[in-house]
Each structure stands twice: as structure tokens, then as C-alpha cells.
Amino acid sequence: MNTRIITIDGPAGAGKTTVSRMLSKKLGCVYVDTGALYRGVAYEIQRQGIDWENDEVLDDFLKHLDLNFLMENDRLILISSGRDITNFIRTPDISMLASASSAKPQVRAALLGIQRNIAKTKDAVFEGRDMGTVVFPDAVHKFFLFADLCIRAKRRNDEMPDETKDIKLVQEEMKIRDGKDSQRKTAPLKPAEDAIKIDSSFLTIEQVVEKMVKCIEKA
């Protein structure tokens, strides 16, 4: 692998997105939010009314799926068949559907090629749940970012519009998703054996990024 690939895995609300964005900017790398790809799949499943638990139907749907990223003024845009769907993929129902549908091996296989093609041509920071274990097992720089569930739920709740704030519901949904992600048979959420684990519960984003930069420079 000639390009420099950095993977950051971990559960929702651990700070992966903000850390990944800041780290990529500091290192001059491309930032790739792989979770957005799975949310994009879930959004299209919901929009098109796809019976994703039917393997034959799902396979046909994935054959016609056209997801890609574009950079627009330092903002990562998710495009589906030429349409910007970035603003439609962060709802709680899409999050839960993304977690459930991503357990399907054919969904992960369909998105694997997109992720690896990006890595062939660009130094990149890849954020996700199985970047260091499945997608880029040979990456030199791997991190697993985690935090206490209560803290993660508060962070996620603070990001939501006032009319949808409900920290108890956010925490419960996050707990359910943690369980599904870590117990699924295909690419479960877990640290790679050689990943550096960082607890972000009581660290600022800047402190997390500083830790990562030091580790990368030492390697």
C-alpha cells in the first residue's frame, strides 16, 4: 500500500467524525466517512421501499446502487445516482436501519470496493466500525476511539435539533446499536489487535488528535 492510510474505528458518539476531520486536515489527507456510505444504503432502502431482508431483492438493489463522495468547500458530500443526499442520512431511523442492513455480507461487499478505490490514489483518514479489522487490515496506523455510554449519548443529543432532543431515547438507541454492531457475525465492531485504543470520555478533541499525531509520528 503506497498511500498512507489511517483508520479510526469505534462506537457512535465517541467523537470519530470530528477527530477524523481535524486529523485529516492536520495531516493533509482526505477524510472518508464510511458510516455515511452505510447510511446512504439505508436511506435508499427506505426511500425505494426495498425488502432488504430478502437476499434476492437486496442483491438486485445493490447492483444498481451508485454512491460516491464529492468534496465541496472542505465538506464531504454523499451523492446517490447524481443526487446530494447528505442532509437526509442523519436521522435516528436511518441510523438504526444502517446498523441492521450493514450486517448483510453483500452490503459490506458492495461498499468495500468504493472504500479501497479511494485508498489506492489518496492518503486518507477512514472513519468507521471495521476499517482496521476488515477493510484495511494492513494499514500501519489504526486507532479505536471509545467513550462512556452516558457521555456519548449526551454528545449525540447535544447535536440534535431542540424539538427532537430526548437523551433517554438517544442513550437507549445507542445501547441497542452498540449491541447489534458488536454481536453481528459479519465484521463486528471491535478493535483491531494492533489498534491503539483511546478513551475520549474526558479528553478534548484537540487532545485526542494530538495523541494520534504523536503515535503516527513515532511509527
Describe this structure in words.
The chain has 219 residues and is an alpha/beta fold. The strands form two sheets. It has a five-stranded parallel β-sheet with strand order 2-6-1-7-8, with helices on both faces. It has a three-stranded antiparallel β-sheet with strand order 3-4-5. The protein is 50% helix and 17% strand. It is built from nine helices and eight strands. It has a domain of 148 residues: Rossmann fold (3-Layer(aba) Sandwich), CATH 3.40.50. The relative contact order is 0.22. The two termini are 16 Å apart.
Question: What are the defining features of this structure?
Answer:
alpha/beta, Rossmann fold, five-stranded parallel sheet, 9 helices
Rounded to an integer in angstroms, the radius of gyration calculated over CA atoms is 17 Å
Architecture (CATH level 2) name of the domain at 5-30 and 92-213 = 3-Layer(aba) Sandwich
Give the structural class: alpha/beta
The overall pLDDT average reads 91
Tally of DSSP helical segments = 9
Strand fraction band? 15-25%
Largest sheet: 5 strands, parallel
Poorly predicted regions:
none
Element order: H for helix, E for strand: EHEHHEEEHHEHEHHEH
Supply the CATH superfamily name of the domain at 5-30 and 92-213: P-loop containing nucleotide triphosphate hydrolases
Record field, number of beta strands: 8
Side by side, the strands of the main sheet go 2-6-1-7-8
Level of helix content? 40-55%
| CATH topology grouping of the domain at 5-30 and 92-213 | Rossmann fold
CATH class of the domain at 5-30 and 92-213: Alpha Beta
Shape: globular
- The separation of the N and C termini measures 16 Å
